[in-house]
Request: fold
Amino acid sequence: MLSRLHRCILCSLLMFSSAVAAPPPQPPSEAVLIHGLGLGRWSMKRVETALARDGYRVTNLDYDSLRVPLEELCHDWLPAQLKAHGIELHADAPPLVIVTHSMGGIVLRGYLKNSGLPANLHRVVMIAPPNQGSALVDRIGDWKAFKLMTGVNGQKLSTQPASFPRQLPAWPTGPELGIIAGNRPINPFLAHWTGGPGDGKVRVTETHLEGMADHLIMPHSHTWIQYRRPVIDQIRAFLHDGKFARNSP
Reply:
């Protein structure tokens, strides 16, 4: 039998050993959110809350999507925002994940084309991105009401070869990209004008991008798809595992 003194010494040694072996705490992963055309940072608030609960340090960006041209958003605005929020982009920095909605995905792709790939970019989820443009813009882009509602950027999102999205390259090798598309439009006229299965503004086929790691279709419409709890759960799954959870509701 060990004496009380021997037991105390043994416990102290075990506690010291455990303390030495414990890994140092890791800094939280960075998560950047970029909303879509005609919306604001409020539209990504539920995603922000969910990722913050998962331990990410979340930066939910805001920009004037109706007045600031896509070219400026990609070349100047996004790099300046990342710097202003202290988001490091080198290999030794905390892992970086990005979640975008709609035109936010085009802003990100334009930024990557112009500024290059951040060394610590780990995973990206794009929700309803018009990666091939939108046939709806082809159909009603010249309408006055459309121009008023979509500002300086709406007409740039057509499917024509010279459109902004069609000038961007495939997804780069390295960071994993997951794309969520909707197929439950709420406006029958918009659904008809897009000419194929989609969320009412972007067809499912228009969300695809060469180099993506996973693609998932969910029964939601375009503008509020990022609000839906099942969609947020899929975002969390991809950021954690690099694939969507096929067995979730």
Notes: The radius of gyration is 22 Å. The chain has nine helices and six strands. The chain has one domain: 27-241. Confidence is low (pLDDT under 50) at residues 12-25.
